[in-house]
Specification:
Elements lengths: L2 E7 L5 E7 L4 E5 L6 H9 L7 E5 L2 E5 L4 E2 L7 E4 L11 H6 L7 H11 L16 H13 L5 E5 L7 H15 L6 E4 L3 H7 L2 E6 L2 E6 L1 H6 L4 H6 L5 E9 L5 E8 L2 E9 L9 E5 L5 E3 L10 E14 L2 E8 L5 E8 L12 E7 L4 E4 L6
Parallel strand pairs: 3-9, 3-10, 7-8, 8-9
Antiparallel strand pairs: 1-2, 1-4, 4-5, 5-6, 10-11, 12-13, 12-15, 13-14, 15-21, 16-20, 17-18, 17-20, 18-19
Helix pairs in contact: 3-4
């Protein structure tokens, strides 16, 4: 059963936009603090009644403000994992999981769910204070799943555990997803976590849904400059659109740098930009590479002379910050993987940088807000 959310309210905080999540799919709500991620999740759970909204799960309508429908939270089939776990401190792990259940077999079902999430049986009789953060998280996940929810909501579920436990919990969630055919919504401020776990991102800012899509699609083609900033695209530049190129689907753009006009680029044209319009453009990391100093014959490539400004080693990855000669004053970031340190350019070295112009994505410089 698909989850579909449409919301539009101005108070007590602005929430506007729509998104959907299919059965077995995980959608991550991402954005800065105050973007409205948790408030949107609370609206889905029924913990907040929005001014105008329609929220459905399959054929069931949980909220329709136009029709006066609002199903209270206790009647919604929602499994919710809170950031602080919200476990009952005076109850054992077993009885925390059994709490939302009814019937003579409730304890048996709770014990089975704890087994599924990997909590050893000897820990089931301990209270939350006697468990580690990772163990408490497993109890919280077990409690959220034990009633076979129609929707699973996870609000910053890994923020309170250390990196080692976090990796283990990532693996647990991936394993559980094979058996959970319900929509799953994850709230997180960690973009790496979102890309690792989620099938799609819902990018939010100032209470508004800006874009939904697969992480790779949003990274390659953000809807506007604000989305590009929020998903961490560092290679973002200014340009001037100069019209059609020599073939359908291609156009010409002048690269504008801090110190003036740069080279003319032949890039993809989606027919959404007018001649003479100022644009913002981005290129993903896979669109840049070090190359030989021979100018490429393929018009899809642009080769630039650059100088290495900084070099940072991050395990198997090296991050280079470069200054391009044309246009002057422009800096780019390049991520290299798999190269031995002896083959890496040093700070101050002159290098040749190749740009794959087929991966350039164009956006209007200003996006008019509705």
């Amino acid at each position: 059963m698909s989850l579909r959310v449409q919301i539009d309210q101005q108070a007590p905080m602005r929430l506007r936009g729509s998104f959907q999540c299919e059965p077995g799919q995980m959608v991550a709500l991402v954005g800065p603090s105050g973007a409205g991620k948790t408030s949107l999740m609370r609206a889905i759970a029924g913990l907040m009644r929005p001014q105008q909204a329609r929220i459905t799960v399959g054929d069931a309508c949980w909220c329709d403000s136009a029709a006066g429908i609002f199903v209270p939270p206790q009647q919604r089939q929602v499994g919710l994992v809170f950031q602080d776990y919200a476990l009952m401190p005076h109850m054992t792990a077993l009885h925390n999981v059994a709490l939302p259940l009814h019937g003579a077999d409730r304890v048996t079902r709770a014990a089975e769910m704890l087994r599924r999430v990997g909590l050893p049986p000897e820990l089931a009789t301990r209270r939350p204070a006697q468990l580690s953060g990772g163990q408490q998280q497993r109890v919280a996940v077990a409690r959220a799943l034990v009633r076979n929810p129609a929707v699973l909501l996870l609000d910053e579920p890994f923020s309170a555990v250390d990196q080692m436990n976090r990796q283990t919990l990532y693996a647990l969630l991936a394993e559980l997803r094979e058996d959970i055919a319900v929509p799953m919504v994850l709230v997180t401020h960690d973009l790496t976590e979102a890309r690792l776990l989620a099938d799609e991102l819902v990018v939010m800012a100032d209470g508004e849904v800006l874009q939904q899509g697969r992480p790779d699609v949003i990274h390659r083609s953000p809807r506007n400059a604000r989305v590009a900033d929020l998903v961490g695209i560092v290679n973002r530049f200014d340009g001037l659109w100069e019209g059609a190129a020599d073939a359908p689907g291609w156009g010409l753009m002048r690269w504008l740098g801090a110190a003036g006009a740069g080279p003319l680029l032949r890039v993809r044209d989606k027919g959404k930009v007018e001649h003479g319009q100022h644009v913002t453009w981005v290129i993903p990391g896979e669109g840049l590479a070090l190359c030989e100093r021979t100018p490429p014959s393929d018009p899809r490539w642009l080769c630039l002379e650059a100088q290495v400004l900084t070099q940072h080693h991050l395990g198997d990855v090296t991050l280079l910050r470069l200054r391009a000669e044309q246009p002057a004053g422009t800096t780019l970031q390049l991520m290299l993987t798999g190269l031995p340190h002896t083959q890496l350019p040093a700070v101050g070295d002159a290098v040749a940088l190749r740009l794959d112009l087929s991966l350039v994505h164009i956006m209007p410089s200003r996006t008019v807000q509705p």
